[in-house]
Write a structure and sequence with these properties.
Helix content: 40-55%
Oligomer: single chain
Structural class: alpha+beta
Radius of gyration: 21 Å
Strand content: 15-25%
Number of helices: 13
Largest sheet: 7 strands, mixed
Shape: globular
């Protein structure tokens, strides 16, 4: 077993660590307060090649694997979870189905500009009555001459107000099975609904979406056949879970670093509080949990890259990394005591933002059911 990063992987870590320290972290608080999509930084990530890391060179990517991608994403999340969420959406959920299923026109006109950050993509799955329950998706796509007419409601749509195109899951055909459509922002019948005000990731706008007799041409049915959407989606869920774990690692790393720094500076009873065992035990638990979570995420990403079964490991990685990161962020705030409740320190942002990772890609309860099923099979 070799746990060392190779030269390319280390170079990726170094590049995105420098970008985090120089460009993301210094303005993370301001981005949060502005509560607007971080378009300028998204375009800088595009220029760095982040969005194309996992796509082949012939379409403008660099053909790297999920491990390299996760290393970069962790560094982005260390600086800002809002930016990491935007980056993850743009580089996977918002663009993958275009690459997999899109026509040459879609690839040239939407997908390639998205890799540069010049077009913004979003995905529409969640509905008011359907979250973890895919069978509850009710948006309908009715076949008409030249295309389909979509009707339904979506919610918790990341980057909806700024998106140029949406990958939409709707029910089509006689059997009403999930089918994938591409809806561009100027299609009549598409409406951006109310904004959802969240406790964290303030710079990543989230909204409701409505389709009222929204016409989608046949060229924009991404599914090769009506009803193949669920199969494509399930193949992607493991990747979503692994990358969500990677984002959690970045936030937890930032929280631990802040706790260590503060504990070395804060004087109580005549000495720094990191001299007291109560604080030392917290730091030790935080560091150990984070190290274990890192190995789980990297192992799941490695299995994916090796083409080996990894759905159970992806669920385990996401479950353990996000729950551990939530604990690390909570303990970091406790090290700060009353100042952990003050907006002037970033630890409060980590504590708010980390909950974002507990939801996306499946709740912890759903993941436990998946793991139990795999173990019992």
């Amino acid at each position: 077993m070799d746990f060392d990063l190779n030269e390319e992987q280390q170079a990726i870590c170094d590049t995105f660590a420098r970008f985090c320290d120089a460009r993301i972290a210094p303005q993370a608080a301001a981005l949060d307060e502005a509560r607007t999509y971080p378009l300028a930084l998204v375009r800088e990530l595009g220029a760095l090649g982040f969005f194309g890391m996992r796509y082949p060179e012939e379409v403008g990517g660099s053909g790297l694997g999920l491990t390299e991608y996760c290393l970069a994403l962790t560094e982005i999340a260390r600086g800002s979870m809002s930016l990491a969420g935007a980056a993850a959406m743009q580089s996977l959920m918002g663009t993958k189905f275009l690459h997999m299923l899109g026509s040459p026109d879609i690839i040239e006109r939407l997908f390639k500009p998205a890799l540069a950050g010049d077009k913004i993509g979003a995905i529409c799955m969640t509905e008011p009555g359907a979250g973890s329950d895919l069978a509850g998706i009710a948006t309908q796509a009715r076949k008409v001459d030249g295309g389909y007419v979509l009707n339904g409601r979506k919610t918790w749509i990341t980057a909806a107000p700024v998106a140029d195109f949406f990958t939409v899951f709707a029910r089509a055909g006689e059997e009403k099975k999930l089918t994938i459509f591409l809806v561009e922002k100027d299609f009549p019948g598409l409406a951006i609904g109310r904004a959802i005000h969240k406790m964290g990731v303030w710079a990543l706008p989230t909204s409701e979406l409505a389709f009222d007799d929204c016409f989608v041409p046949d060229s924009h049915r991404l599914s090769k056949e009506e009803g193949d959407g669920e199969g494509h989606l399930r193949k992607t869920l493991a990747e979503i879970r692994i990358l969500t774990g990677a984002m959690a690692l970045g936030c937890a790393r930032a929280a631990l670093a802040e706790a260590v720094r503060y504990a070395g500076e804060r004087i109580q009873f005549g000495k720094p509080i990191d001299r007291f065992q109560a604080i030392q035990l917290k730091l030790a638990d935080m560091a150990t949990g984070l190290e274990a979570a890192t190995h789980l995420v990297h192992y799941a990403a490695w299995l994916h890259g090796a083409g080996r079964p990894h759905h159970k490991e992806a669920a385990m990685a996401k479950l353990f990394a996000t729950e551990t990161a939530a604990t690390v962020c909570d303990q970091a705030a406790r090290v700060f005591a009353s100042y952990g409740y003050a907006m002037e320190y970033p630890v409060q942002r980590y504590l708010r933002d980390i909950r974002f990772t507990l939801i996306g890609g499946g709740t912890s309860e759903i993941l436990k059911l998946i793991i139990a099923k795999e173990v019992s099979a």
